[in-house]
Amino acid sequence: MIKLVIFDLDGTLLNTIDDLAAAGNHVCAAHGWPTHTSEQFRYFVGDGVYKLIERMTPAGAAETPETVQCLRDEFNAYYNSHSCDLTVPYTGVPELLKKLDARGIAAAVLSNKPDTFTQQLCANLLGGRFAVVHGQREGRPTKPDESLTREILLQTCVRPDECIYVGDSGVDMRTAKNGGLFAVGALWGFRTRKELLENGADALADSPLDVLEYIG
């Protein structure tokens, strides 16, 4: 019996890509670097802000830790003021969360987005419906490290076989498999069916409400 669903955030619960692209392009433009489309940013995000900086900047532009830190601070400052300009829950997500709650099934969020932003977006756009919300925390690993799902299971007193994980990227599928969880790929998100299957998806969902098929 499923007692818990762990969700990724960006590309799974919330369509954040236009606000992420705006923040990234703000940094690039400020330094005179080429900017990118929202479609390109779909493949830049997902592995934490440091990887995002590496992917969106020209080769050699972020070679030192000090430079990367400065660029991260610039990105975070802009995103902090604009994270909800265009970001919305995907169609069906609020209904899915309500149905899980009605069935007595807990929900959690595990994201590689900085924890402050993860907490803010979940509270402001998703009504604080989660038993646990974890973004990327300083000094802690990022997904797909298995310790992250293990921590949530311990906090909710749920076994791996009582939990499913829903995400839209290969990193998410590897996170689920590393934690011994059933992996559901979100086809409505940022990445492709091919990427999800190649990284171990046990099932695919065309829309958020399709996740209910795997609750049982």
Automatic annotation (TrEMBL):
GO terms for biological process: DNA repair. It comes from the Bacteria. The keyword S-adenosyl-L-methionine does not apply. Transmembrane segments: none annotated. Coiled coil: none annotated. One of its GO terms (cellular component) is cytosol. Gene3D superfamilies: HAD superfamily/HAD-like (3.40.50.1000), Putative phosphatase, domain 2 (1.10.150.240). InterPro entries: HAD-like_hydrolase_sf, HAD-like_sf, HAD-SF_hydro_IA, HAD_2, HAD_sf, PGP-like_dom2. The keyword Chloroplast does not apply. Keywords: Hydrolase. Its EC number is 3.1.3.18. One of its GO terms (molecular function) is phosphoglycolate phosphatase activity. PANTHER family: PHOSPHOGLYCOLATE PHOSPHATASE (PTHR43434). NCBIfam families: HAD-SF-IA-v1. This is Phosphoglycolate phosphatase.
